[in-house]
Automatic annotation (TrEMBL), chain A:
UniProt record, GO biological process: transmembrane transport
GO cellular component: plasma membrane
Species for this entry: Nesterenkonia cremea
Name by which UniProt lists this protein: ABC transporter permease
Domain of life per record: Bacteria
TrEMBL record, chain B:
Keywords: ATP-binding, Cell membrane, Membrane, Nucleotide-binding, Transport
Listed name of the protein: Oligopeptide ABC transporter ATP-binding protein OppF
Any GO CC annotation of this UniProt entry: plasma membrane
Organism: Nesterenkonia cremea
UniProt record, GO biological process: peptide transport
TrEMBL record, chain C:
Domain of life: Bacteria
Compartments, record wording: Cell inner membrane; Cell membrane
Predominant subcellular localization, coarse grouping: membrane
Domain (ABC transmembrane type-1): residue spans on this chain: 110-299
Keywords annotated in UniProt: Cell inner membrane, Cell membrane, Membrane, Peptide transport, Protein transport, Transmembrane, Transmembrane helix, Transport
The species this protein was found in: Nesterenkonia cremea
Protein family per UniProt: Belongs to the binding-protein-dependent transport system permease family. OppBC subfamily.
The protein's name: Oligopeptide transport system permease protein OppC
N-terminal signal peptide: none
Bias (Polar residues) ranges: 7-16
Membrane topology: Multi-pass membrane protein
Sequence intervals crossing the membrane: 46-66, 110-134, 141-162, 168-188, 275-294
Amino acid sequence: MLKFIALRFVRYSIMTFAVTTIAYLMAVSFFNPVTQLMDLTGGSLDPEVNRENVEETLRRYELDPDQNMFQRYGVWLSGVITEGHWGYSPNGATVNDAFGDRVWISVRLTLAAMILSTVIGIALGVYAASRQYRWGDRTTTWYSYFTMIVPTPVAFLLVQRGAIWVNEQAGEQIFYVTGFRSIGVEGTWNQFVDMLAHYAVPTLAMTIFGWAAMQISQRQYLLDYVNADFVRTARATGLTRKQAIRKHALRVSFVPTAQSIAFSIPALLTGTFFAEIIFNWDGIGAYTIRALHQHDVNATVAVTFYGCIVFAIGALIADIFTSIIDPRVRL
Amino acid sequence: MSETTVTTPEPAPIGGGAPILSVRDLHVRFPSEAGSVHAVRGMDFDLHPGQVLGIVGESGSGKSVTSMAIMGLLPDTARVEGEILLDGQPILGLSDEAMSRHRGNTISMIFQDPLSSLTPVLSVGQQITDAIGNHNPKMTKAQREERAVELLQKVGIPAAEERLKNFPHEFSGGMRQRVMIAMAMANNPRVIICDEPTTALDVTVQAQVLELLKLAQEETGAAIIMITHDLGVVAGLADELVVMYAGKPVERGSTQQVFSNPSMPYTMGLLAAVPRLDVSAEHALATIPGRPPNPTQPYAGCPFAARCPLATEACEQAEPGMQQISRGHAAACIRLDVARHADAREIYGVEKLAPSAMELTPRQQRPEVLRAENITRHFELRSRLFKRHLGTVRAVDGVSFDLREAECFSIVGESGSGKSTTLLEIMELDPAEGTDLVLNGRTITGSRKKHRAPLEMRADLQMVFQDPTGALSPRQTVYELLAEPMEAQGWKSEDIRARVFELLQTVGLQPDHVDRFPNAFSGGQRQRIGIARALALDPKLLVLDEPVSALDVSIQAGVINLLQRLKSDLGLSYLMVAHDLSVVRHISDRIAVMYLGRFVEIGEVEEIYERPRHPYTQALLSAIPVPDPEVEAGRKHILLEGDLPSPTAVPEGCSFRPRCPLYRLLPEGQQSVCESVQPALEPLILSEPDAGDHGVACHYPRDLREMN
Amino acid sequence: MAINPLNAAQHTQAANETGGGEPSGEIRPMGKKRLILKRFMRRKPAVFGVFLLVLLGAFALFGHHLTPWHYQEQDFVNLGAGPSSEHWLGTNSAGVDMVALLAQATRTSLMIGLIVGILTPVISLVMGCAMAYFGGWVERLGMWTLEALIMFPQIVLIGIVMTGRDGGPVTLAFIMVMFGWMASARLIRGMALSYVNRDFIKASRFMGVHPLKIVWRHLAPNLSSIAIINATTAIWGAILAEISLSYLGIGVTVPETSLGLLIEQSRTYVFSQPWMFWAPVAVFGFIVISLMLINDGLRDALDPESKAGGKATT
């Protein structure tokens, strides 16, 4: 078991290193923060002076555009390894500072929705499987396929506009469709109500468009087993069909489900691009997109690294989970 | 559909009194896209306490559906009519919940496939204690566990207490079937239904399980329903027999009556279609033409009429009811007056086997087709993580033999003995170092170069696979399938076309089948396609890997006859692997018995079947039940203990020693050589002058029946 | 073997179905492609799907003839105007004719879909088969690449390329291909591995059929149906991804246009000027519906176990 984890750890470390390196080299060669910054700051100034200023700024933040990518990679890597310093953004902020808060915001945005969509997805999957081809199954499954083909931004936009419509109908601000808190709310109860008003819409959007995959896979896993030989054996020992399915088929069908849940737990930490942008929560997702638009090499690479680590943790948890619930798998 | 005359079966010879289970005019229909499938059409029987009732039929005859109807385990969509009385109480139509109080309690069931019949994520102990607890909610956990241990000990699982914690995948197939039997016995049921309980098991394990079932019956006093396609299994076990065809009983009687005087032409054909283990083959096997009627289409006459050699016009008019033949013996046939006195071979037009000139030529004078010297296949076992060497599996360990023209050489043994690996080693034509293969005069010296063998050698050597469905690419038409080997040899397309139609004729298929996909054919037809493809290049040698084991009895006979005819007509040689020793005896000239990668006995088929000398061979042969109750009653079974050992833990000395019945009988002084020296395959002629080229790998070759 | 009278009805039926009826002996094997086409054509919804897709394709190619306006041309008199006789689907906030925009956007999106839909299955088929067939270091290297690519946060990489180089729709399509093949390659590798050990592959090997021919004849056809079915899903997956990426500003950007970009541009007008939002959404819906219908029909036509193949008789 420990050996297995150690071995996996080594493997993922190597892969993370390779992926991060590639991301760094690509970002350095593709990005052009000079023009980007000139667009931001420039205009009235003389273009030549402006360029020099911008380059000077970048040099200060170890983003010298004249150095070749390997030189810069060396400087960056030694910074990361010796001091754990992930570099600066072109505006002078350090990546390390920018990260912490945003991870927390992402977690808060996605946690409730993830729990809800997992629970609802599994419940509806079991429900649909137990009523295969009947009305209840057709409706839930059809709905899942529908949500899977609706583009996420379209779906979230519609939920957001719907909430605005409700506010307009009610004539007061019931839901907040952007941000995660109002400024200047006093008192625990008021803060709590304010929080609910902010959470409701994004959580609803992510939940109702989020359970589809879980529902479809849980339905399929259970259907694979409801007519299994071992369910028949269990019935032959004196269980009713329902009891046998609950005790035997359901249990076996949870093996792959647990694996995919384990895999998705760390995804909490990476946040979601669409929800954060549409509902305007400044989490990791929004940060990533901004970094890309600003040609922010260090932030982009940090996000890449972070994504790899989270993926590796997910894969490891999934393996461990499986070995715990499935006696046939031993690590 | 005509009205069936229902004759109440007479009281059984043993048990007597009221039947514990009665089934009256049972009908089961399943809705399907093609219309309603009438799977059981009037099943009738009585089961008396302590009685063993055999229900025999081919796949699709409705025998399993009947058992599921009794257990209340049919899907909700099934429409069940009729009457089922358990101890006088009607149980048909009970709710699932009401029925669940009977299941596992008064009536329990043992299923065919022990691999998939136990829940993989629950421990065996959990599953047995649940089976007990379902009907004894008041028992404490400790009491249940105690009972579970007691049950496991009864079914012969060593170290029962520790094994409760194990999961099903940690048990071998035979051990899992023992667990199933323990679960079925748990609450001392009145009736145990066994649905093909030994079909998935090796013959040696089958013998153990059958023995155990007898014990379970004695232990619980339960009546047993034995559902099987294997006439041998019921011959030794059942008191009463019901033969099913197209969803209804066509003959019933005591086992003795049905076997000694089969009266319905179907039963006669079935019995004549099975090769016999205990007599040498003089006749071809009876084949029943056609296939069973489509259960979605109702028919007026006798369902067997279309396949029956005795059918007259009257047979097509109305479905016959049961006609009394003698006390307790009845058959559903209107031509019983002719049928009951007829000889099955005669009415099915079975011919005597007529060996060709080549087959009558003494073996030494026939040309050699294949000589294999020292075939070896070792697998290195390595751990998944660090590739640490864990051991070597000697799947095939120095096997040598030769094969002459128009000869069938068979290798027999339990699964895991290495017999199929031997075939594949030959088929690859790329053997390991130290191995020589001489095929039709051309030699391949072992080198494991991973290169392709010359095409001419491929043409001489072709293979027929066990599973006819898996061996035919589902995306090719019959034409493409048959053309493939010829295309590989670079034949011209006109030649291929002509040959394809010739081949279809040779194996008895219709020419208009060429543009069908394999899924349009029945199992027997698919196997014929497989044989036609193997014949395409006019090979010298066909390698047959369990060629009939996936087929029903009556279909199997047709394929065996075809193989036999091809051997005589074309002078083909066969190298065959089969687990059915009766089939092996029927078509083989020579056999070898394989155990853990080595030949333990080799020789002429008659010699080995009549005078087996290795204790393993003797155990194997005695494990096979013979489809004849009289013979079966007189046979002594040598039961082997345990399963085939793990190939990584082959014991020192003679590898068969731990299971050897002879070893245990030997005086201590003689045992030591078995413990230290692996016996070599030596000609028996040294000790028995008339043994021919019979060879045995045993330190003390002798007839076990003559001991003790 | 005698013809079973009970199956005679089936027999003639089967003969009619396959267009047979010629006397035996002169029967020519029927082409498999024809058979598959025939089975596909039997499914009305699938045929409708093809019709719909052709219609959409025609709109993408020739839709600009429906309006005198060009998709980069502004009508300053009609800014954000509703549908009228001059602008059938109205104009957007910059006064560009929606029909012209939509035709161009459909063209971009379909082109991305086609590039991804064709290249991804091909690459995954090649990679999957190669890994399964050659094994050894090819497999190990392939699996490492595959896992590394799966591990790579894809949106970030797409973002680096697209924002860094202001890539157009074609670049976007090729990056999607680069990151789209892994899942199905892994699936195909698994299936190919199971096929390699199947008896019918062994049979061909033992017949002396050339290994490459085995791959071509047996491995590929059995896997290509998955690849073909995957292709239809890959097309709509790519179009879906384009919408998402363009919405994030790392997909197609002005001056090009695409369905995703149109949706992004109209995000604040969902209620006030709904035609801007719903027109591209509707086009996307039609594309998905047509592909789903085709997918369903293909699945059935390519399935050798399908009931529609006729039955042989004894």
